[in-house]
Amino acid sequence: MEFPSKLIENAVGELSKLPGVGKKTALRLALHLLKAEADSTASLAEALAKMRFEIRYCDTCHNISDTPECAICANHLRDQSTVCVVSDIRDVIAIENTAQYQGMYHVLGGVISPIEGIGPSDLTIDSLVERVTKEGSEIKEVILAISPTMEGDTTAFYLSRKLRDLPEINVSTIARGIPMGGELEYADEITLGRSIVERQRQAR
C-alpha cells in the first residue's frame, strides 16, 4: 500500500497493530483523525497515554483501577464472603453486566498453558491463596468462573487441588451453561448470569 505521507504511513502502521484492525481500516481511522478537530485528536491521544501510563491494578483482586483499591473491593455493601476467580479483566466486566453477582473478584491474569510457557507462578494464584487464608478473612466460597477450554479446565483443576485442604472454604464452578471451548466474555448476559447463580460445588 502506497502512502502520500510518511506520517500517515507511520500512523497506519501503529493502528494496524490493534486486534481486528487491518491496513484499510487503519487508513480509514488515520484519515478520520486527520480531518477531525485538532482538539479531538489531541484528547484521544491524551486519553490513551493516560490510560497506558497511569492506570494500575488493584492490590487486592488485580482488577484494573485508578487507585490502589478498585471500586468493587472498596464497596463494603458487596458480599465479602464470596470470591469469583476469573482469568481476565474482561471476564469481570462480562459478569458485572449480568447484575447477578454481588461478591468479590480475583483476576488471575491468564490461565495455565504449558504450550505458551505459562505456569502457576506466572498467575496470581499465590495471591489468591494468601487472600483466602489471611487471618480475619471473611471468604467462605471461591467460585471458579474460568472459560471451559482445555487450559481453563487445567487451571480450575489446579486451583481446586490448591484449595481443597481448606475445610472452611467451599469451592464451586459456574454451571455449564457456557459451551465447552467457549469464552466467558462472549457469552450472552442471561446465560452467564444463570451460570453464576446455578454454580456447582466442587468435589474435594
The appropriate CATH architecture of the largest domain is 3-Layer(aba) Sandwich
With helices defined by DSSP (H or I, 4 residues minimum), what is the helix count?
A: 8
Largest sheet: 5 strands, mixed
Radius of gyration: 21 Å
In terms of structural class, how would the helical and strand content be classed? alpha/beta
CATH class call of the largest domain: Alpha Beta
Low-pLDDT stretches: none
Sum up the overall morphology in one term. elongated
Q: Could you name the CATH topology of the largest domain?
A: Dna Topoisomerase Vi A Subunit, Chain: A, domain 2
Helix content: 40-55%
Whole-number total of structural domains:
3
Helix and strand string, N-terminal first? HHHEEHEHEHEHEHE
Whole-Å distance between the termini?
59 Å
Explained architecture:
This protein is of the alpha/beta class. It is elongated and about 70 Å long. The chain has 8 helices and 7 strands. The protein is 41% helix and 11% strand. The protein has 3 domains: 6-54, Orthogonal Bundle (Helicase, Ruva Protein, domain 3); 79-173, Dna Topoisomerase Vi A Subunit, Chain: A, domain 2, CATH 3.40.1360; 176-203, no CATH class. It has helices at residues 6-15, 23-35, 38-54, 71-74, 89-96, 125-133, 150-163, 189-197, and strands at 56-57, 64-65, 82-86, 104-107, 141-144, 170-173, 200-201. The chain has a 5-stranded mixed β-sheet with strand order 4-3-5-6-7. A two-stranded antiparallel ribbon has the order 1-2.
